[in-house]
Design goal:
The chain has 116 residues and is of the alpha+beta class. Helix content is 35%, strand content 17%. It contains four helices and four strands, in the order ββββαααα. The mean pLDDT is 81.
């Protein structure tokens, strides 16, 4: 027996999901579940999804937005201000500055150009 990481209920180690909270039970490799449909056995294999670590996630983000999480320079802040004052949308600004939309919104708030 093992405990579910979400609700801490005791579950069998060969279960794919916790029957109490529905969370996928993390497993080391894979498990096989044999069920029957129309009296014929059907085998289903559940393979654990490996979580990406922080550095892998950042590398993926930087493929789309190379400047994501980089410090802002005064020149970039000025360019951001100019683009915003020209009426560009956050999505457009993010593409131009090669940053994520959330980063653009955060910086616009920080420099006082938007409230929320």
């Amino acid at each position: 027996m093992v405990n579910c990481k979400k609700c801490n209920s005791e579950v069998k180690s060969d279960w794919a999901y916790c029957p109490f909270c529905g969370k996928f039970i993390e497993i080391k490799d894979s498990i096989e579940i044999v069920t029957t449909t129309n009296f014929e056995p059907v085998k289903q294999v559940f393979i654990k999804k490996t979580q990406k670590n922080y550095y892998e996630k950042i590398a993926e983000l930087k493929e789309e937005s190379p400047n994501a999480y980089n410090p802002w320079t005064k020149e970039e802040e000025q360019q951001l201000t100019n683009l915003f004052n020209e009426g560009k949308k956050v999505k457009e600004i993010a593409l131009i500055l090669q940053r994520q939309q959330g980063g653009i919104k955060s910086r616009l708030k920080k420099i006082g150009l938007i409230q929320n």
